Amino acid sequence: MLSGWIWLSVAIIIAFIFRYRHACFYGRLETDYEKLFTQCNSRRPDILITDDIRHLPPVVVLWLTRSGVLNKAFNGAVHLYQQGAMRTGDNSKWMPVKAEQWFSSAVPGFLWTADVKMFPALHLAGKDSYINGKGHMLISLLSVLPIVNATGPEIDQGSMIRYLAEIVWFPYAAVSHYIKWEEVDDLTARATITYGGNSASALFHFNEEGDFVSLKAKRYYSAKGKTTLEDWLVETEPGAYQTFEGTRIPNRLQVTWLLKSGRFTWFRLKVTDIKYHENRKYQLTQHTRHEYLSNK
Questions:
Q1: Measuring CA to CA, which residue among 122, 117, 125 is closest to residue 100?
Q2: Which of 143, 54, 103 lies closest to 278, judged by CA?
Q3: Distance between CA atoms of 251 and 97, rounded to whole angstroms?
Q4: Does position 21 have pLDDT exceeding 90, yes or no?
Q5: What is the domain extent for residue 180?
Q6: CB 117, CB 99: distance < 8 Å
Q7: CB atoms within 10 A of CB 8
Q8: Angle, alpha carbons 236-241-243 (nearest 5°)
C-alpha cells in the first residue's frame, strides 16, 4: 500500500515538472514575441518608390521591381507559415516540420517556432530567435526537456545571416538602413548587414529575369563539440515562386552546408502563407499553436 502511494507521489511530481517546463517554453515564446513587436507597434507604414532603390546594384533593382514591392505600404511586420522536413545527418531520416515565423524589419529581428515530428508520438519543439541583436536557439523534447540551448557571438552571427537570407520573403527590407549593397557582377550582389555592433555579409545570386536564385555566406557550424566557420547555401527550387498579397517570392527553398566532407542539405521548406499587412496583435499561446499545428 505504501509503495503505491510512493509511486503516485512520484508520478504527480513528474507531471508537475513536465507541466512547469512546458509552460516555461511557451512563456519564453510569449516574452520574445513581445520584445520583437515592441519595435513595430508604433511604426507607420512605409511606401517604397523608385527613387528609394536607384542607388542599388541594377540586379537588386530588377529583383525588387519584379517582386512587386514598389508603391505599396508595409508596416514592417511579417507573419508566415512553413512546412517541410529536416535531418541531422546525411544518413539520418527526414523529419516533418511545421513552423510559424514573425519578422520585424524596422530593426532586424525574427522569432521562429517549429514542431518537428521525430516519431508518431515524439516531437521536438524548436525556437530560433534574433532580437535586439542577439540570437538564441532552443530545442526541447516535447517542449519540456531542453536538448539545445545556444547563445553567444557565434549564434548572433548565424542569426544575422539567417535574417539576411530570409528577406527574400519580404524584399522591401533590402533598402533598410542596416543593409548595404555592392555589385559583384551582372547577376550577383553582396549584402552586408550591420546591427548591434556586429556585421555579416552574404552573396545574393539572381537570374536574368531578376528572380532570387541562391545565397551563399560564411556561417558557424557545430558538430561533435566543435564549431567551425563554413559555407552556408540557400537555394530556390526550380519554378518555386508564388505571389502573396501582391508580393512575388520564392516559396520553396533548401538549405545546405558546403563542408569539407561534402554537400549536406539538411532543411527543405515551403512557405504556405504570408501576411504583410496585419496590424492586429498576434496571440502566441499554447492554444493557438496547438490549433495551428493540428490544422495546417
A1: 125
A2: 103
A3: 15
A4: no
A5: 2-295
A6: no
A7: 10
A8: 145
CATH, residue 130:
2.50.20
Q: List, in order, residues 6 or more apart from 49 with CB less than 8 Å away.
A: 70, 71
Give the side-chain half-sphere CA count within 13 A for 132.
8
Considering the entire predicted model, what is its pTM? 0.84
Report d(CA 108, CA 248) in Å as an integer. 21
**Amino acid letter, 40:** C
Crossing angle, helix 286-295 and helix 2-38, to 10 degrees?
90
Sole residue written with cell 539567417: 162
Mean pLDDT of 4-16: 48
Copy the grid coordinates of residue 151: 547563445
Radius of gyration of the chain (CA): 20
Cell numbers describing residue 233: 547555401
Question: Beta strand pairing status for 241-244 and 198-206?
Answer: unpaired
What number of CA atoms fall less than 13 Å from residue 75's CA on the CB side? 19
| Cβ atoms 272, 83 nearer than 8 A | yes
Query: Measuring CA to CA, which residue among 38, 25, 274 is closest to residue 171?
Result: 274
> If you average pLDDT over every residue of the chain, what do you get?
83
The mean pLDDT value for 138-156 works out to: 75
Instruction: Report the number of distinct structural domains present in the chain.
Output: 1
User: Residue 238 CB: number of other CB atoms within 10 A?
Assistant: 8
Question: What are the pLDDT digits (tens) for 199-211?
Answer: 999 999 999 999 9
